[in-house]
């Protein structure tokens, strides 16, 4: 009732402003009809009065009766003005044409020119897809997530991998959304490529802190990715042929100016080259992945529009007929936009997400099939209410139904017994409210509150333990059975959010933010890179949800007519109920996960520095992060604080693009980071004549991998075409230009001092040996070439 009363009050308050008239509408790209997210429409006489378009390109603000000139603008597009005589509410749409820039005016930002200073947002980055495509990439595969890893506060899981850690959070603490649907595993080829085909992507935004109240479910970051809608003006086709994959996209109007579609596919063809081998063993292997993105939209009326989009991707790995491994994601989004009036906008979304993986092993005497996965059904209602020029209100509700399928093993007469770990079921619900309120020109505050709850439900049987004792087999006292749909455990709580921006002047601002997040799902894994076999586990009677709090403060400055951006941000994050593995425990086959893990606390803090140039022949950024991440968990490292596996003290990224001519663009990046914290053996001991490494369970992650650094270069060459309707270009890339042998793993072994052919696995006593570390590096210099085309 309180929430309904609040909404009613907002409507009543809006009537107090009846002397003003509302100007509203959409801002779109003229050539394709795509919504221009964040485009601004302002009153030219007083540019502080206006509004930025939402994710669907919709804007709304109000002015008193009179004659005005409105200006619509978006970086990289021609500004458009229109004069109006305002004597009633008016709907005005803007179609902006892309700007034809010369070399001195090249623009790479997807945001308004002064947003770095003027917006309440902090700890947020938006990357233009054209910029992402210009960054050199492994095997020439343009990658959204690897581009995100080049930003301050975001680090990679390892050489070439797409796993990412944001401000001291683990990889499962990032919520990755594709058209609002959750992507649980965003990697191809065991993490070396991400699942996002750049040809199908329109907008990429990451929130590292100051997370708005409409988002929830993860405590470290939100990576919000929107797919393109498709051209509603004309048919187009585009694609590319690269070193390891090819892409093809087709789009066009279903009904011109009313609806459109887009279909985009990508596939690798390593398996094609394997089939050409003279070696039969190699020829029978399998190695490839594929993606398919599809989207359509239809304008039902001036106030109603529907969208449907989907993604399906899969990886296939196989060794002859002996072993097969495949995994993949499927997502579906159905959305309905409805405009109640000029001020109230509703987006209703139904979502489905499915992640699953499986093994097939056909080794004689050891044959089995293993399947695992999870599904999510999600319904959301998100309202945007433009109360007045000083208040933009967002509120909504969200309900998710989770189904977890941990392990199902089917085996006949082999060394491995059949096993079916019971499915887990849960409901996750939330309601939120937020308001961005301007107090004059200098002070702006975005405040909000989210209430979330999580209900773990049956059917299931729960093991009971002695009260006050560790959750170990020796402390079991019985079981308790729950029927289908019966409540097993319920968690809930408030998640306050606030962000404050104080504008010192038009080029300088100070910002602070605080957010609390609750995460009811987490991954149980010994790896850091985010492998497909990672097991997602829900909060239950013994594993509590993670609660994360973060405070951040920053100084933001723009120079030279907003051509340069400078920022410094500091943050401190503290987490409750973080789980880690107990020494020597297994998780994949464990039906009582509480036996294998223990919970405790974690904290992370750091400073991020960024200098970025957005316009001119040379563009790019330099980012530096200084950070520390620690944990303290009973039963791990003797209960003492220890470094997280992904702790990296220093992280530097330099990204530069230079337009040599109208047709040639040279790009490069250089990265450096401190080696990850790891546990190395402290010695060795002998069992049955074999040397075995000794790890001290009383400490964890007291050593470091070698420092990592690498440089990549690429050259993009726009080829001349005799036909206006056909564009083509070549991209040449060099990954790891100076052939740095970065360590992917380090193995420790004993070698005989006198015998170079010593084998540590032979029987018998070991005498006169010395330890040796062996570094494994994945990649040397990797050249690649990609041919891209577009048919207009």
TrEMBL record:
Q: Does the keyword Translocase apply?
A: no
Q: Which Gene3D superfamilies match?
A: Carboxypeptidase-like, regulatory domain, TonB-dependent receptor, beta-barrel domain, TonB-dependent receptor, plug domain
> What residue stretches are annotated with the TonB-dependent receptor plug domain?
141-218
Where in the cell? Cell outer membrane
Report how it sits in the membrane.
Answer: Multi-pass membrane protein
Keywords in alphabetical order, please: Cell outer membrane, Membrane, Receptor, Signal, Transmembrane, Transmembrane beta strand, Transport
Q: Which GO terms describe its molecular function?
A: siderophore uptake transmembrane transporter activity
Keyword check for Membrane? yes
Check the record and name the PROSITE patterns matching this protein: TONB_DEPENDENT_REC_3
Using the record, list the residue span of the signal peptide; answer none if the entry has no such feature: 1-18
Q: What are the record's GO terms for cellular component?
A: cell outer membrane
GO BP: any one term: siderophore transmembrane transport
* PANTHER family for the chain: HEMOGLOBIN AND HEMOGLOBIN-HAPTOGLOBIN-BINDING PROTEIN 1-RELATED, TONB-DEPENDENT OUTER MEMBRANE RECEPTOR
The Swiss-Prot or TrEMBL record describes its family as follows: Belongs to the TonB-dependent receptor family.
Q: What is this protein called?
A: TonB-dependent receptor
Provide the species name: Marivirga atlantica
